[in-house]
Design brief:
The protein is an alpha/beta fold. It is built from eleven helices and twelve strands. The protein has two domains: 182 residues, Isopropylmalate Dehydrogenase (3-Layer(aba) Sandwich); 149 residues, Isopropylmalate Dehydrogenase. Strand 1, helix 1 and strand 2 form a beta-alpha-beta unit. The structure holds 1,4-dihydronicotinamide adenine dinucleotide (NAI) and magnesium ion.
């Protein structure tokens, strides 16, 4: 089976860290076909589209996508839509999996995953302007279908994780704000709890989003799998990643029934773009998650590749070389060269 991976670097450091990822992919798994496509703010400025049809088609023809970052402006631009939000929807990769593991030696150890609903909520892009621009209505979409499948994805992941660690029971925390967003989050909460009730081996709890943020900052080791809606998941996963060494190390997988898309949690980082100092580890960990996904689909050797790559990253985290965000002076390419040498 010929497996094709679509590489979309995007803006800013997206290109730098995906260049590192592509080097590692080519060396470890030359049997995979890599195809390259463009998207992002730069692409919008050149072609008038942030996610050109050619890119979308190439992504849909591929088995999985590796995405760098898009630098979306925080002000309205006519015709512009975030390409990554559109791509997640087009591929229907509904479960955004964002793991955080504390660096070796940290106690108590943090090992948690935020499972973020990836296709609706306020990211559905349904906004209307009224009152001559003085009022904006942003619609927040929650469906039973999306709530059901995200809860199921969280439950299955919690079960898998517990199977690899006999001493700690699986716990799923449903995060919502149903006390205020009574209908929308009411539906999400009810649906998630119904799904989780069919998994008696999991401990299930619920937390309001604000309390969850506090607990996540204060006592992250208490969490196992957190399942929540899109916006809360976006924010909570950035809090969580502090405990794993920061944005330069935080990776994510967006998984659907057909496709998967892997992207670092960080953005285009305009403050450090073009300086060859972005930490490539988040993007390289995305490659490890891609190998896991391929291994789950029966692709030979990929479980081995994931293991070798993670082992190399663990040594580098302990011993260096480290980029400036981790207190070192190494460049993106120094770290990449070390990874290449270690997995050779
Ligand atoms: P950011 O994640 O790009 O950067 C936040 C801070 O973390 C910056 O100081 C940056 O230098 C640092 N940082 C991020 N990644 C790093 C890495 N690999 N190594 C070392 N340091 C790293 O978030 P920011 O600055 O708020 O947003 C910049 C642009 O990125 C915006 O246009 C935003 O819309 C976009 N963005 C895109 C995302 C995506 O494509 N999925 C996610 C988050 C932001
Ligand atoms: Mg984010």
């Amino acid at each position: 089976m010929a497996v094709q991976i679509c590489i979309i670097a995007g803006d800013g450091i997206g290109g730098e860290v995906l260049d590192a990822a592509a080097q590692v992919l080519r060396q470890l798994s030359p049997e995979l076909t890599l195809v390259y496509a463009e998207a992002g703010w730069q692409t919008f400025q050149e072609y008038g589209e942030a996610l050109p049809d050619t890119t979308l088609h190439l992504a849909l023809q591929s088995d999985a996508v590796l995405f760098g970052a898009s630098g979306s402006p925080s002000f309205p631009v006519p015709g512009y839509r975030s390409p990554i939000v559109a791509l997640r929807k087009a591929l229907d990769v509904y479960a955004n999996i964002r793991p955080t593991r504390s660096l070796a030696g940290t106690t108590p150890a943090v090992d948690l995953v935020v499972v973020r609903e990836n296709t609706e909520d306020v990211y559905a892009g349904r906004e209307r302007i009224e009152d001559g621009g003085n009022t904006v209505i942003t619609e927040r979409v929650v469906t039973r279908r999306a709530s059901t499948r995200i809860a199921r994805a969280a439950a299955e992941l919690a079960r898998q994780r517990a199977a690899t660690r006999p001493t700690r029971r699986a716990r799923v925390t449903v995060v919502h704000k149903a006390n205020v967003i009574r209908e929308g989050d009411g539906l999400f909460r009810r649906t998630a709890l119904e799904v989780l009730a069919t998994y008696p081996e999991l401990d299930t709890e619920e937390l309001l989003a604000d309390v969850a943020a506090m607990r996540l900052a204060q006592s992250p080791a208490r969490f196992d799998v957190i399942v929540t809606t899109n916006l809360f998941g976006d924010i909570l996963s950035d809090i969580a990643c502090i405990h794993g060494g920061g944005l330069g190390l935080a990776s994510s997988a967006s998984i659907g029934d057909e496709y998967a898309l892997f992207e670092p949690v960080h953005g285009s980082a305009p403050d450090i773009a073009g300086k060859n100092i972005a930490n490539p580890i988040a993007a390289l960990d995305c490659v490890a998650m891609l190998y896991d996904w391929l291994a789950g689909h029966g692709l030979p050797h990929t479980a081995q590749y994931a293991h070798r790559l993670r082992a190399a990253l663990a040594v580098i985290l302990r011993e260096g070389p480290h980029t400036p965000d981790l207190g070192g002076t190494a460049t993106t390419q120094d770290v990449t060269a070390q990874v290449l040498a270690m997995v050779a």
